[in-house]
Amino acid sequence: MPRKVIEDTCIACGACAGECPVSAITVEDVSHIDPETCIDCGSCQGVCPVDAIVEE
């Protein structure tokens, strides 16, 4: 299953977007992961400094 962002925790730093190999993440007020594009590799989760990305 694709990862999801806990919006209340996300600080929109962009670290996850920079790590995503398929560009499934956009950053606005918070990060958003496109579940259709996400390949569930977990790279984004490993770089989030506030642990705002979890498995769905």
Q: Number of DSSP helices?
A: 2
Distance separating the two termini = 6 Å
Total strand segments: 4
Query: Quick check: average pLDDT?
Result: 96
The CATH architecture: 2-Layer Sandwich
The main β sheet shows up as:
2 strands, antiparallel
CATH level-3 fold name: Alpha-Beta Plaits
Estimated share of beta-strand residues: 15-25%
Q: Give the C-level CATH assignment.
A: Alpha Beta
The secondary-structure class comes to alpha+beta
Morphology: globular
- Rg, rounded, reads 9 Å
Total separate domains: 1
Order of helices and strands: EHEEHE
What is the share of helical residues?
A: 10-25%
Strand arrangement within the widest β-sheet reads 1-4
- Segments where pLDDT lies below 50 for 5+ residues? none
Notes on the structure:
The mean pLDDT is 96. A hairpin with a 3-residue loop joins strand 2 and strand 3 (31-33). The chain is built from two helices and four strands; from the N terminus they run E-H-E-E-H-E. The protein is 18% helix and 21% strand. Strands 1-4 form a two-stranded antiparallel sheet. A two-stranded antiparallel sheet has the order 2-3. It has helices at 15-19, 43-47, and strands spanning 3-5, 25-27, 31-33, 53-55. It starts with a strand and ends with a strand. The protein is globular, with a radius of gyration of 9 Å. The chain has a single domain (3-55), classed as Alpha-Beta Plaits, CATH 3.30.70. By secondary structure, it is of the alpha+beta class.
